Write a sequence for this structure.
């Protein structure tokens, strides 16, 4: 079959993307699902900073590639040896396919799946297959998802079945923003009621961390961003204080608000200098958590002696240290109960053809989560 998709042929093109058009919208051939694979019609796909990092070259990936990793859809065909999924099931994608056999999976850390990481780095599905083609040439998969396409083929290990009562387009948010941000708070460091938190960066992941901190009962919750326009939403989602680091000394301000520093600081920007500042905002015995993804060339500079002398900690959190088959249904349930107001993250939806303009908005901080509104039922013969 054929599908219409957004393909990245070259990373690092300059903005504005409306002019440079790093994502090319075109028709591709899509091979049927192989063994253990599933054909999915996309219903929702979010524009995330991780996609933007691939576009601007700070998160290099092999090309050409169909981008998009935060997505939801409907199963339309199952390949041989697929278990637990059938046609018409509703699914959310996990951007790390979970093999279930490596040491990380076996010890309850599927977000670090070794086979999944190797497939993602190569731009293939978990089993090594590539199902997109353009004039016979292969077009790679993004993190096993490739959500910026009307249809995609994914490994069954990349899919989480959800209840049909869940609004399917919005469900895409649980595949990255909510899973990563809330998970960093509740899984990676398990913030306890009354512990203090600072969150650096108020994009979709950072604001999800704010929601996660409120869910955990953290106090105070301090939100930090260079765009004060985001502060009202941060306060609505649970922040008690907001700081603009371009207008205030963030380390001194956090110390004043907490009596010496926060228990946990979460860096959701993807910048080593911001991570160093987050670390400086942590009290003696506290922990800084790296959630964002800096360019591989960036290096972190901190006072080394503080790790031992002050028992300060530095942790990484990938995909919210999640177990997606456990956490995605739980988080959806919390949202349905009103405990996670995920709809507050939504910016106006866009069409697939507007995707380059959408990434301009994201880069400029003018949108939190834009979802692609796909032209449903428009499969190409």
């Amino acid at each position: 079959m054929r599908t219409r998709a957004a393909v990245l042929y070259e990373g690092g093109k300059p903005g504005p993307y409306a002019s440079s058009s790093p994502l090319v919208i075109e028709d591709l051939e899509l091979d049927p699902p192989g063994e253990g694979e599933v054909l999915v019609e996309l219903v929702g796909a979010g524009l995330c900073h991780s996609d933007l990092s691939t576009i601007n070259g700070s998160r290099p990936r092999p090309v050409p590639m169909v981008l998009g990793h935060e997505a939801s859809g409907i199963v339309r065909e199952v390949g041989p040896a697929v278990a637990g999924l059938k046609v018409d099931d509703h699914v959310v994608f996990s951007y790390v396919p979970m093999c279930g056999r490596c040491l990380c999976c076996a010890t309850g850390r599927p977000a670090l799946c070794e086979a999944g990481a190797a497939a993602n780095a190569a731009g293939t599905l978990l089993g090594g297959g590539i199902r997109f083609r353009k004039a016979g040439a292969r077009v790679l998969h993004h993190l096993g998802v490739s959500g910026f396409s009307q249809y995609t083929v994914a490994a069954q290990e990349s899919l989480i079945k959800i209840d049909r009562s869940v609004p399917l387009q919005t469900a895409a948010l649980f595949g990255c923003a909510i899973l990563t941000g809330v998970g960093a708070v509740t899984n990676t460091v398990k913030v306890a009621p009354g512990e203090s938190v600072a969150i650096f960066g108020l994009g979709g992941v950072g604001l999800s961390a704010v929601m996660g901190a409120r869910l955990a009962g953290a106090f105070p919750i301090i939100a930090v961003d260079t765009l004060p326009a985001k502060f009202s939403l941060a306060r609505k989602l649970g922040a008690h204080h907001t700081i603009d680091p371009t207008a205030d000394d963030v380390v001194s301000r956090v110390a004043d608000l907490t009596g010496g520093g926060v228990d946990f600081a979460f860096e959701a920007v993807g910048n080593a200098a911001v991570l160093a500042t987050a670390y400086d905002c942590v009290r003696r015995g506290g922990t800084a958590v790296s959630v964002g993804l800096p360019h591989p060339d960036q290096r972190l500079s901190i006072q080394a002696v503080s790790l031992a002398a002050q028992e300060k900690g530095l942790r990484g959190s990938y995909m919210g240290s999640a177990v997606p088959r456990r956490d995605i249904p739980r988080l959806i349930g919390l949202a349905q109960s009103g405990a996670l107001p995920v709809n507050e993250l939504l910016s106006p939806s866009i069409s697939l053809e507007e995707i380059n303009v959408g990434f301009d908005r994201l880069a400029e901080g003018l949108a939190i989560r834009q979802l692609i509104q796909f032209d449903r039922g428009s499969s190409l013969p």
Q: What stands out?
A: Residues 202 and 230 are 7 Å apart (CA to CA). The chain has a mean pLDDT of 96.
